[in-house]
What we know:
This protein has helices spanning about 5-10, 15-50, 55-60, 60-65, 70-95, 100-120, 130-140, 150-160. It has about 160 residues and is mainly α. The chain has one domain. Helix 2 packs across helix 5, helix 5 (about 70-95) packs across helix 6 (about 100-120) and helix 6 runs antiparallel to helix 7. The longest helix has about 35 residues, at about 15-50.
Amino acid sequence: MSYDYLQRTNPDLYGQRTQITTDVVRFFTRAALGWFLFHQGWGKLMLDWNEGLGAFYRSEAFQGRSPDWLPAALGAPYGYVLPSAEVLLGALLIVGLLTRTAAALSAIVFISIAVALWAGGTFFPRHMLMVFIPLALYFMLIGPGRFSVDAAFAARNREI
């Protein structure tokens, strides 16, 4: 069956309906990635809230996975900032605000965690970061889609 035949029999096959479906899927995928980041960061922030600032940095979850070659001058600020960064980046991805920037920074966070896990020998044979890194890079390159604050701002700017 040729593409021309499909276009004549169902002119919307590759048109508006497909675009809406793509945007809905993009929204839910972006929101799921954002929710994962937000949820991970929130748990770490609650640890800091309940046990004092820097509790996540001092925890086995961070110290036990931090590579030996990572200087404390880099590891400490990262450990203190990571929980807040994950919450902020997750929230930005969920609503689709500054999506490309948030996705790029999320990819950097994911890659840094993957490097730490790989250095500790716990990344392979499988890890969820093998899915999250490409997703973050996808949203960095492709953008948020129609159902986002970024798209609303772009549409508003086109009207002006």
